[in-house]
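To: structure desk
From: M.T.
Subject: fold request, one chain
Message: Could you run this one when you get a chance? Sequence is below, nothing fancy, just the single chain.
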Amino acid sequence: QVQLQESGGGSVQSGGSLKLSCAASGDTRCMAWFRPAPGNEREGVAAIDNDGATNYADSVKGRFIISQDNAKNTLYLQMNSLKPEDTAMYYCAADPPADCYSGSWPYKFWGQGTQVTVLT
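Reply: Done. Structure tokens follow.
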């Protein structure tokens, strides 16, 4: 069992930046960030595997950067050029059933979430 703990959420003005972190209690194969989306349970924002290969949802490409520190078992999400529509609870997740994509479902382990609010 891997436990995930997010941090770094908060309120920021539109156009600003935030960096989220997710600390994992053990080794994982693939990690990702999710947020709720209308009509879907959760939208995959970005994912990264142990080799550092990344993929992103179209809505955040060019603005968000996912990265990890394998030595610290920590996942990051650098969010730039934030928009009001990025306001959401952001969840860290680990180990999908197959390929490491933000669209894969369901991931095995989940954190409790950290709130991001983008002010107009």
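Reply (cont.): The two ends are 40 Å apart (CA to CA). Let me know if you need anything else for the meeting.
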